[in-house]
Amino acid sequence: MASKSFTNLLRWTVFILNFLFWIAGIAVLGVCIWLLFDRGVAQRMMELDERLHEFYVAVYLLLAVGIVMSLLGFMGCCGALRQSKCLLVSFFILLVIVFCAELTCGILAYTHQEQVQQYIEKSMYDTVLNRYGVEKAYTDVFDSIQSGLRCCGVKSYRDWLDSYYATQKRDLPEFGFGSGGIGRVPFSCCNALGMREHSLNCGTTYDKIPLSMYEPYLNTKGCLNAVYGKFYQNLDIVIGLAVGIGCFQLIGMVFTMLLCCWIDHKKKEEYKTGGY
Fold this sequence. Notes:
Elements: H1 2-37, H2 39-48, H3 52-82, H4 85-111, H5 113-131, H6 136-149, H7 164-167, H8 192-197, H9 223-233, H10 235-272
Helix pairs in contact: 1-3, 1-10, 3-4, 4-10, 5-6
Subcellular location: Membrane
GO cellular component, one term: plasma membrane
InterPro entries: Tetraspanin/Peripherin, Tetraspanin_animals, Tetraspanin_EC2_sf
């Protein structure tokens, strides 16, 4: 009786773990299908970056992850319910491969974080100097960053002095000359004081007078450090989720092997007692 209860406990534990894994895989598949077939998403990505194929490469990779997760979960559920050692061992091997792949990705992300930071900095400078005021999607995204994180420019508000927005966009009421330290900044750079005292034209009328005179009205810190700060502020959550997923997979491996060993043990006991 105790033996049967222990077997059932292992079976249902492995089943529940794999059922959750299967549900997660189905959720990933659903997101990927939405990203692939929703035209609004594709249009938005076209506005953000002309290299749309890179977006689809990422989605297809995520789709592959979802398929693998779904198959693994389904295989584990079937193996647990049928007490099939073949299915359980196959599931265990594949789960080990997935776990090692995730661990490798984490190590690569950690060891290449300098390159990632350089890419982020380069992209932000490209937006400020060349794309802001030209491409609406980039303009909206950077405005959201500046207003949300209360920052301005990449490393300083002075990054705007040599931008297309400050020196060439003549459809605005005024235009400045960056080389002389004179120019405009977007409205999203303005702090509470600037928006209160220059509610209609904060930032856009800072022309013919050195921009430094308007510092009290601006968020002067750069957005690069603000973005990094926001990321590191939530780093504990990201690490916690990664560790949680890893532990979940390790628990699945342990219980799967326990169930396999118990199936072997039960078969040997049945053989000894003439069960076959």
